[in-house]
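Q: what does this look like with flavin-adenine dinucleotide bound?
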Amino acid sequence: MPSLSTQLIVIGGGATGLGVAWDACLRGIKVVLVEQSDLGQGTSGRYHGLLHSGGRYVLSDPPSATDCARENEILRRLAPTTIEDTGGLFVSAPADPPDFPDRWLTACQATGVPAHEISRASVLQREPLLSPNLVRCFEVLDASLDSFDLLHLLCAALRARGGQVWLRHRVERLVQRQGAIVGAEVLDLATGERASIGAQVVVNAAGPWARSVASLAGVDLPIALGRGAMLAMASRLVSTVVNRCKPPSDGDILVPVGTVSILGTTDEPVETPDDLTIAPWEIDLLLAEAEILVPGIAGHRALRAWSGIRPLYRPAPAAGAATRLLPRAHTILDHGETHGVRGFVSVIGGKLTTFRLMAEQVLQVIAPQLGSDTSCSTATTPLEPSERRKFHQLPGRLERVERTQGAPPAQLLCECELITRSDLETALGAIEAPDLDDLRRDLRLGMGPCQAAFCGYRAAGLALRRLGAPADGGLTPFLHERWRGLRPLGWGHTLRQMEFGRRVALELLGLVEPAETS
Ligand SMILES: Cc1cc2nc3c(=O)[nH]c(=O)nc-3n(C[C@H](O)[C@H](O)[C@H](O)COP(=O)(O)OP(=O)(O)OC[C@H]3O[C@@H](n4cnc5c(N)ncnc54)[C@H](O)[C@@H]3O)c2cc1C
């Protein structure tokens, strides 16, 4: 088995793991990050898209609110290309607790979360689809954050500084010697080959899979999993993030992201990190709650639903509590102290907004173990904009497609997201062992209104021709994944689109087994 030696292994290529690896790298620590899939395949790619102002947590979790406010400001400086400065609103509806807004505003001041009251008239001028019945309105510094772009920036920055990122490698064993973790055995999921990596410290940043990773070291992590469903409406119904000004609950945030608006979330306890099902009542609830903010929202086209899993540290006393009631703050456990397993640290929970701070705190624990006394510099080291274009800005793409300056017009492969053939060819050349789902995360392939009804086949054909790889260019799993997000939305325009896509796949191309699409 090939082997190499490093100082630090980070397990998990979500925001937390990449943040830890980036911080370590800046301190001169040799690091290998191992991700079993692609970047953002876990919760970091399945979230609500909100760069929190902190407003949501000022009463329920004041320290988290302060952390969010600080990190919000820092991230805007470090990675401006990943953030759309939509601004945010907290609005109360007639049925919301009338004493809440004043208590909330006082708590904003106490926690350092910038917020001020504005008139309903000015809000309605800015957001004409919002309900005219809103009672009170406040402005905050929420924004929308493209996690795929952020993860790519982190990965590129990390690699540029000599850090290693192994995608599609799963940690299958942690090597233990005399009460200390001294390395890991990893499986290359593309080739089936195994490798061993020796390290002084291993960080478990495996998100909802943290419990199974910890079990590789014989550590039992008490973790509760909460699954949240989200629903993207096919148009941008608001241009500002809109939160309900009431105690946090299901379906109380609306986030504009690119061309869509995302309603979310629910919070259901689940047993496994792979349980991404969405129950019909969750969609009904999200729409019913959003109706209070945007009357008539159910008449707009729903584009797609998805869900993400939140791991919440649940030490014994809170066992059995509803996951919505468990603290959202992160937990860092040095298993040398908690379980007598040295060189092994887990970081659990938190928010994408606070990933940098979480990483800094992890490094406070492990840097001394690695003999480093260099201080943290992630708050002041910008993540350079990637060399890729910022593909997901539709106006930018449209301009590029239309301004051909005498050259023949670019060939469009995806009409919804305006992805050209050359975009796709560039991405195919840049990604190691790409599949169509990677192209979706990189280019937004198949994420528009037709949900891959046309571009999926074109991309599969091109991938096949370029790479000579999988029999159908990875098309079947890609279509299954698109289908999963459409299935809970079988009414109106979406039902027509689903039926059209299904007939193309099944009857025209004979691609997808009927049993799996029923
Ligand atoms: C429904 C929902 C909505 C949310 N909305 C927001 C929001 O709007 N704003 C916000 O700030 N936060 C939000 N959050 C929280 C935020 O998404 C998470 O805190 C963050 O994404 C967690 O990132 P992570 O890196 O810890 O985990 P993940 O992104 O899940 O990464 C863990 C990675 O570990 C990998 N892995 C697991 N096991 C192994 C193994 N054995 N070997 C190799 N790799 C492995 C997985 O493949 C995965 O990619 C939301 C969370 C949920 C659930």
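Residues 394-517 form one domain. The longest strand covers residues 302-313.
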